[in-house]
Give the backbone structure.
Amino acid sequence: MTKEIKRIAVFTSGGDAPGMNAALRAVVRNASFHDLHVYGIFRGYEGMIDGDLERLERGDVGNIIHRGGTILKTTRSERFRTEEGAIPLTNPLLAFDIDACVAIGGNGTFTGADIFAEEYDIPFIGIPGTIDNDLFGTDFTIGFDTAVNTAIDAVDKIRDTADSHNRLFFVEVMYRHSGYIALNTSIGSGAGSVIIPESSTPIDALVDTLKKGARRKKLFSVIIVAEGNETGSAQDIARMVKEQFDFYDTKVAIIYHLQRGGSPTAMDRVLVPAGLASTP
């Protein structure tokens, strides 16, 4: 017989992503509509281990839809990766009579949820919240649109300086294993080239592209670099290019964690509510 779900817990885990608060708000308010009790777990799996849970009402998630970060806080729990750390997880959830959990996060969060659900027979629902957009089964993850727009805004400003000073800028963006942010930033900002983990980019080929631009009297260029590409960091690539082609005054800009913060875009605010509204 299927157990009736009356109490759920929700938590955010891994890297923060703009829109996590909007997702949390949607979960709490939708659960309240269906007469479910909701408990927020603070600091992800660390809070789950420590029993750091608190009842959430509709008012607790008011005025957060526009806020970046996560009001539940987040960590990457090393303790959860160990058997000694995972064992106590049953006690806090049983103490609060939690019937199911909602996990908002990325690959690591979902891997942990899958292991925990199988080990302790507590069902999990995963809401994809990561700026990397690298989760199978969804077109867009929460935070991706905001991260790309933040990166494009930064590149637009860098282009002004590059154009004014006839410079070549290498702009490094997140993430280690996925080129989604870099590729979309490159297209959206009209960058000269992009270097991503999924595709090899020889320095000679990049130099040839820059030389062709110089012959067309192109006086500046912006290259987007994903941090995890196999060619090297933005600093490494800039140095190698300069050794072969010093036509431009070469500069490097690393925007990294700027992409995580800030108010979420409309798209990142409505992804989860729209999904809940379409659920029977």
Remarks:
- The first helix runs from residue 20 to 33.
